[in-house]
Design brief:
Shape: globular
Order of helices and strands: HHEHEHEHEHEEHHEHEHHHHHEHHEEH
Oligomer: single chain
Radius of gyration: 22 Å
Helix content: 40-55%
Number of strands: 11
Bound molecules: glutamine
Low-confidence stretches: none
Strand content: 5-15%
Strand order of the largest sheet: 1-3-2-4-6-5-10-11-9-7-8
Structural class: alpha/beta
CATH architecture: Alpha-Beta Complex
Length: 494
């Protein structure tokens, strides 16, 4: 059994047919990671002891005849902003360098019940702010297709781990594209569920009205399997919802053919580099071969999405990150300053804040906290924040209208394939632009799937051949439509 071939589906078959034990295969994954990850840097840390003991437990339960379901024993990689009880959770930030989670995120609780095994925590941009994983306080993750390029971000560690076979699948989080863009850059599948479909309890918050946890996998089918396992209403997240009807199912081709796909003209109006344009044309051609109908649509407020996001998101970031004050949560060891007692003295308290936040946050986090504080401040609130909320509504209404005509919308994931490490670090605006096609989806709270156009790219004249992803956007809680089309797409290009 070559672990590099494993999908969730294949792993499960192998386990049922007793080709391996969970313990054996978990060990094999750790050996492989230790050999390979020194070049990729996908993981921030491995959780070997707990993984092996969980693997053992699953083996025993299987031997006892317990039917643990399709996720039993599956080795997963988890983004470092998702809490696993007893494990460090840094969210890629120095300020949380010593923070150990005291509880399991709801998604982790659910996956533990399904028998999944967690190999380790993956690298990410600090507090999920970034598009390249270069904003991590700890290391730079490389794109497995070209080690001089970024894996995308902020879930770059998770995408790189799956793309280089160092996990069967992974969890990431997506606030403006952080699952879909790295999946596109690394040639794997990424699903951002409908806002509310998956509980955010135990996800270290970036921008709470936009954040969602979702799967990064090798196949669309696997994304559906993981999504089904983590979704659902949770009393610990008031924004979570019950109405995601999704069940793993093999949609019939005749039902898929009834879905009409919209192509928003604003997404194809320039700004795409030729290779991406060609790849997207290839994806459309492939889908047309299934006899799916296409239609041009318009999302007229698309041009305001990025500006709108870069007001709302920092506003929420500034509020969410206020809690990292050096008193609660783990602190910089250096700031082991006199805690509560001495803090009664006001200037002492201020010093704790200044020192912890000054040293603990990186440049991008600081930039967004300052920006967010500004747009929320008295006198500017109406001009920026309230206005951005109104624009957000218009963007949502564009989608509502479009979905009266079509069932699914197809777009590129990013304007370019993976860029070079260091290429955009000095120019935040250029970095922000790489999310131009993914951000509107978060503002509207919709589900969207990133799929590699061609896992073995042929038509692109890029050197080396870099993967390009296309995005399928669905109606709220209609993950079933985008996953259904995605599954048939994969069958064509097999
Ligand atoms: N790259 C975007 C940002 O920097 C999106 C990040 C995300 O989805 N977490 O905000």
């Amino acid at each position: 059994m070559d672990i590099r071939d494993l999908t969730i589906k294949k792993f499960h078959e192998g386990l049922v047919n007793k080709q391996f034990s969970v313990f054996e295969i978990t060990k094999a994954f750790f050996n492989y990671i230790k050999e390979k990850d020194s070049r990729i840097n996908a993981y921030l840390r491995l959780t070997e002891d707990s993984a092996l003991s969980r693997a053992n437990k699953v083996d025993i339960e299987l031997a006892e005849g317990k039917n643990l379901g399709i996720l039993a024993g599956i080795p997963l990689a988890i983004k470092d902003n998702i809490l696993i009880e007893g494990e460090l959770a840094t969210a890629g930030s120095k300020i949380l360098e010593n923070y150990r989670a005291s509880y399991d995120a709801t998604v982790i609780k659910k996956l533990k019940k399904s028998g999944a095994v967690f190999l380790g925590k993956t690298n990410m941009d600090e507090f999920a702010m970034g598009s390249s994983t270069e904003n991590s306080a700890f290391k730079i993750t490389k794109n497995p297709h070209d080690l001089e390029r970024v894996p995308g971000g902020s879930s770059g560690g998770s995408a790189a781990a799956v793309a280089s076979d160092m996990a069967v699948a992974a969890l990431g989080s997506d606030t403006g594209g952080s699952i879909r863009q790295p999946a596109g850059f690394c040639g794997v599948v990424g699903l951002k569920p409908t806002y509310g479909a998956v509980s955010r309890n135990g996800l270290i918050a970036m921008a709470s009205s936009l954040d969602q946890i979702g799967p990064i996998t090798k196949t669309v089918e696997d994304a559906g399997i993981l999504f089904e396992a983590i979704k659902g209403k949770d009393e610990l997240d008031a924004t979570s919802a019950t109405n995601s009807e999704f069940r793993i199912q093999n949609s019939e081709l005749q039902d898929i053919r009834k879905l009409k796909i919209g192509l928003p003209k604003e997404y194809f109006a320039g700004g795409l580099i030729k290779e991406v344009e060609e790849a997207i044309e290839e994806a459309i051609k492939n889908l047309k071969s299934l006899k799916i109908e296409f239609k041009e649509i318009s999302l007229p407020h698309t041009k305001y999405a990025l500006s709108c996001y870069y007001i709302i998101m920092p506003a929420e970031v500034s509020a969410n990150l206020a809690r990292f004050d050096g008193v609660r949560y783990a602190r910089l060891s250096d700031a082991k300053l006199r805690i509560h007692a001495n803090a009664a003295n006001k200037s002492e308290l201020l010093n704790i804040y200044l020192k912890t936040r000054g040293e603990g946050f990186g440049d991008e986090a600081k930039r967004r906290i300052i920006l967010g504080t500004f747009v929320l401040s008295s006198g500017y609130y109406d001009a920026y924040y309230s206005k951005a909320q109104k624009v957000r509504r218009l963007i949502k209404e564009d989608f509502d209208k479009a979905f009266e005509e079509v069932d699914v919308i197809l777009t590129p994931v990013s304007p370019t394939p993976a860029f070079k490490i260091g290429e955009k670090t000095d120019d935040p605006l250029q970095m922000y632009l790489s999310d131009i096609f993914t951000i509107p989806v978060n503002l509207a709270g919709l589900p969207a799937l990133s799929i590699p156009v061609n896992p073995k790219p042929k038509t692109q004249n890029l050197k080396p051949n870099l993967p390009v992803g296309f995005q399928l956007i669905g109606k709220p809680f209609r993950e079933v439509d985008i996953l259904g089309i995605g599954q048939y797409y994969e069958k064509i290009i097999e």
